[in-house]
Amino acid sequence: MSGHRATTKESLPVRRQPSETAKWHMSREAVDLSVPEIQGWTEAQCHEFLVEVRFGSRETVSCPHCGSVHRHYWRGHDNRWKCAFCGKTFSITSGTVFAHRKRPLKDLLTGMLMWINSAAGQPALELKRHLDTTYNTVFVWQQKMREGLVRGYNVGLLSGDIEMDGAHQAGRRSKEKRGVPQVSRPVETGAEEKGLTEMMLTQTGRMKANRKKKESGAFDPEFGRKLPKDRRILFAVRKRSGRPGKGAVATRVAVGLSETSPVAEAILKDFVAMPESWLNTDTSPAYQELGRRFMDHRTVEHSKEFSGPKGQNNNQAEEYNWRYDRAEKGIYLNIEPKYLLDYAVETAFRSDTRRLPNGKQLKLALHVAMSVGESLFWKGYTRGHHRKVELIHPAPQPAPASGPPKGTDPRRRMDARPPR
Ligand SMILES: [Zn+2]
After folding, report:
1. Residues, CB within 5 angstroms of ligand 1 (ion)
2. 104, 110, 107, 97: which is closest to 149 by C-alpha?
3. Where is the ISXO2-like transposase domain (predicted)?
4. What does CATH list as the number for 161-171+230-353?
5. For the chain, where do the domains classified as CATH 3.30.420.10 start and end?
6. pLDDT digits (tens, 9 = 90+) for 141-164
7. How far is it, in rounded angstroms, from Cα 54 to Cα 130?
């Protein structure tokens, strides 16, 4: 029986040690809320969950009309409170991004738990299938969570050991794919007669012309030429934990048209207490002047080394860029520049809360989303009210709705699908 089986320790195949991340995800503590658990709740239990998330308790309910904190009068017949001071009524979602909702709370909680559980992000189409509802419903839910994080999480100053890095994102033919049916192009007639050399010549010529046409965006000194029109630079600003193996503890993200000093300055002003901090960047000229406002500025030249002679590195900011790439290339596929920040903030939140149990992660995300007032970006979206600005640094810029106008084409009024 023992024939060919190795028995000595030395001859056993080497087993890889599980990483700290793997240990965490396999642990019992990593999961403290599940879809079957929520599905077993009554609507009243879902309500109690959200009372705790939004107000802390029934004793400390805050009236969205006048702001008074009190044990307001609860009306069980329509599930609303009546304010003890101003007399107006409100529900658990009044005055939040989820105001005027139509779906039951159980669906909302289930959907948002599924969204939280997907570590890299979740396609709206997948959630639509899970919940058997409309695409618009789940798409707007997800976007409202992102809005909550943009307005309630990606704010405030960081201090301490700060890493900053910009990464090229978007601008990969994203515009031409929007609102246009993706049908295959008809085969060009007469292509067989053309010689191969001639075809290649015209092909190269066409590519050159296309590139020139596309390069109408900002000039980038590092890139050495004008960037494609839809290209954006995604900046990650991260605070190191200062403990080995623990990575970054807080992240702020911002979008700019180029990696230049004015853009970097605007971002640092918004997100970093500069005199109280150390700055770690690559050798991009964007940070050279700005670095002097910090206690110290350490750089690492990435084309030559991962880490400088004194251990200078930008690994946490790089880790964030890698995470965003995973979300865009693996899940969301073709993020419109106008909404790039929203997805980037989602990724930052997921990264910062990676070691929280999933139920706590959900509570935190919902608390933030329910603390920024009603939705400014997505209210009335399905009726054609779209955000008209792109939230970039140094200043937001106008960004009209992309795609065909919704419900306004007179030719389609009678026979087309309802406007959306
Ligand atoms: Zn009131």
Report:
1. 63, 65-66, 83, 85-86
2. 97
3. 157-352
4. 3.30.420.10
5. 161-171+230-353
6. 999 999 999 999 999 999 999 999
7. 26
